[in-house]
């Protein structure tokens, strides 16, 4: 077949596959600073401590600065669970502690048609964000591995109890077997969805919505 015809067929197909769909909203990410040393990168379920400034793209007005407003402390957030706007859940992945990024977030991934407080409806927002610290979230893969003593990818009651004992001691409380057993039962009632007596990795980790 002549190449021109292939090109033509291909572009028609391309249109149906890609052109007909609305483009997905995206966060524009610019890395402003990346530290030389990076022990780990942020991901779903991590807890991040951040400082940030937020600006309206329309006229550059700063609507919030964690350094200058409120108690002036950096803020903790859990990544990937919609605790924050979608644009942050998407734009703060794969960051090192100490890294700074500029995110340009379209309204669909921020406050949308409604707006919020000083943010008018349909606003594109610009954030300068610095990650101060990254910690394992309570539901992180690392926490699961730490609890799963025999590496069989599920948590038994004994493993959860042992974890509680260690956590209590780490925080300076006396371990209390009776109390921990009660807690373990309570935890399994909530988390062991299929009632097989184990908390699987799937049952343990967040079930994230699609971003
Ligand atoms: C910027 O836009 C916001 C929202 O429309 C408005 O409240 C604010 O007064 C504007 N600031 C300047 C400096 O124009
Ligand atoms: C241990 O926990 C149980 C149940 O919560 C409580 O009744 C008991 O007083 C605790 N024992 C000690 C020594 O703290
Ligand atoms: Ca196990
Ligand atoms: Ca289970």
Which characteristics define this entry?
single chain; 211 residues; alpha+beta; Recoverin, domain 1; 2 domains; 6 helices; binds 2-acetamido-2-deoxy-beta-D-glucopyranose; binds calcium ion; glycoprotein; disulfide bond
Q: What would a concise description of this structure say?
A:
The chain is of the alpha+beta class. The chain is 30% helix and 21% strand.
Structure description:
With 211 residues, the protein is an alpha+beta fold. The protein has 2 domains: 28-136, Roll (Chitinase A, domain 3); 141-204, Recoverin, domain 1 (Orthogonal Bundle), CATH 1.10.238.10. It is 30% helix and 21% strand. The protein is built from 6 helices and 8 strands; from the N terminus they run αββββαββαβααβα. It has helices spanning 3-19, 86-91, 141-147, 157-170, 177-191, 201-204; strands spanning 28-33, 47-56, 62-65, 75-78, 100-105, 125-135, 154-155, 199-200. Strands 1, 2, 3, 4, 5 and 6 form a 6-stranded antiparallel beta sheet that branches. A hairpin with a 5-residue loop joins strand 2 and strand 3. The radius of gyration is 23 Å and the shape is elongated. The two termini are 42 Å apart. The model is unreliable at 1-20 (pLDDT under 50). The protein binds 2-acetamido-2-deoxy-beta-D-glucopyranose (2 copies) and calcium ion (2 copies). Residues 176, 178-179, 182 line the site of one 2-acetamido-2-deoxy-beta-D-glucopyranose. One calcium ion is lined by residues 148, 150, 152, 154-156, 159.
Rg, alpha carbons: 23 Å
What is the first-to-last residue Cα distance?
42 Å
Unreliable runs = 1-20
Determine the fraction of residues in helical runs and give it as a percent range.
Answer: 25-40%
User: Class of the largest domain, according to the CATH hierarchy?
Assistant: Alpha Beta
What is the average per-residue confidence, as pLDDT, rounded to a whole number? 86
The tally of helices reads: 6
Strand content: 15-25%
Q: How does the helix and strand content classify structurally?
A: alpha+beta
Number of domains: 2
What's the total number of strands? 8
Sheet with the most strands, sense and barrel status: 6 strands, antiparallel
